């Protein structure tokens, strides 16, 4: 994976400041403040939110509401704001269950993601039977009425959900809404903006996590087109429903960063990962790290609280077990949120004076289930010595564009230039520890 301009410039800014006052800079990934003990508090340290889907029918369950109050600061109605729930009969709106969730959240100072205004699925029967201009008008009326009703109360709306086909076609999904004309999506976004100008407007989809997939590319081109023509879109939601057949891709960070570079926020909107134990925990860790490494990744929402609350409870895909106990996946997410490796950037520590000085900037590369790549860029001199320190039980198993030597523990690598410029890289077997290596630079 290439170095991303954003992550490099972010870290470089911090390190340059240090380089100006001390000869050499040491970068360490450390929390900006003391470690927080809940998901929401930990996410807030980097200006992000941590949310969950909520079902109105569970608001009477005190274990459920206890975890909800404690851990989350963003709420999505799992089903209650869908078209079939809010407009069961044409032009007769029904907000009882949706309001229960919105009020529960807002009374506790939590924000709300609205889900979803226009979708081929979960349409009320009357709408399923419509086509053509009558359907287009009914859809726009729905968007306008629901977004107006909740005007001022919604942080972000999933305006359009799941409008692209799976597989290699890159085409729009064939649906009654699509058959009203290819411009139905932008029409929905314009109607939503008019109805609630304060809400962020998102396009939301699944199977858009892998940068090389046709569906991801197709959504990217739509967002690029919308931005170029001034169609009001503010964010892209990545549902992130993973399992062994659809694992967290190693290029997830690339996907999120590339969308963010279009000038939209990105959000992980329905996260769940089937599995258990450390395997599941590592995948949750990778997703959280990918979001934390993209400054416009503004938050993560998991699709339910306990495994038993999940739409696919058989896969035990969530952060709390059936009894409400924290799972290993919970701890791995909390630790990444607390690590501060995100938009606030790594914090810095000083180092020995060294006239001229240099800075070393770490940037994460590709990730696999058992290992990850790291890249280091050096500025300030061509005559550098960079120290890379990994944490036990990590092991560096390969390097490129540098001549390495090692200390007796094998945890500390001393890297010198090998004539190929000021960028080098290495592969770390993580052995269950995904902590970023620390890098420091001195002039030889
Ligand atoms: O399918 C997972 C998610 C994919 N992205 C969009 C999300 O909106 C979707 O959520 C799921 C809910 O988690 C399920 O709870 O969407 C399903 C379909 O809307 C929801 O399932 C529905 C069942 O189809 C209904 O039979 C049931 O009455 O849940 C309802 C309430 O339990």
Describe the structure.
About 30% of the residues lie in helices and about 25% in strands. The chain is built from twelve helices and 19 strands. The protein has helices at about 5-20, 40-45, 60-70, 85, 95-105, 125-130, 130-150, 185-195, 215-230, 250-260, 275-290, 330-340; strands spanning about 25-30, 50-55, 75, 110-120, 155-160, 200-205, 235-240, 240, 265-275, 295-300, 345-350, 360-365, 370-380, 385-390, 395-400, 400-405, 410-415, 425-430, 440-444. The strands form three sheets. The protein has an eight-stranded parallel beta barrel, surrounded by five helices. Strands 11-1-19-14-17-16 form a six-stranded antiparallel sheet, covered by helices on one side. A hairpin with a 5-residue loop joins strand 16 (about 400-405) and strand 17 (about 410-415). Helix 7 (about 130-150) runs parallel beside helix 8, helix 10 (about 250-260) runs parallel beside helix 11 (about 275-290) and helix 11 runs parallel beside helix 12 (about 330-340). The chain is globular. The protein starts with a helix and ends with a strand. Residues about 1-35 and about 340-355 have low confidence and may be disordered. Bound molecules: ligand G2I.
Describe the structure using short key phrases.
disordered N terminus, 19 strands, eight-stranded parallel β-barrel, 25% strand, alpha/beta
The overall pLDDT, averaged over residues, is 88
Distance separating the two termini: 29 Å
> Unreliable runs, pLDDT <50, ≥5 residues?
1-33, 342-354
Beta-strand percent range: 25-35%
Structure summary, number of beta strands = 19
> What's the tally of helices?
12
Structural class: alpha/beta
Q: Share of helix among residues?
A: 25-40%
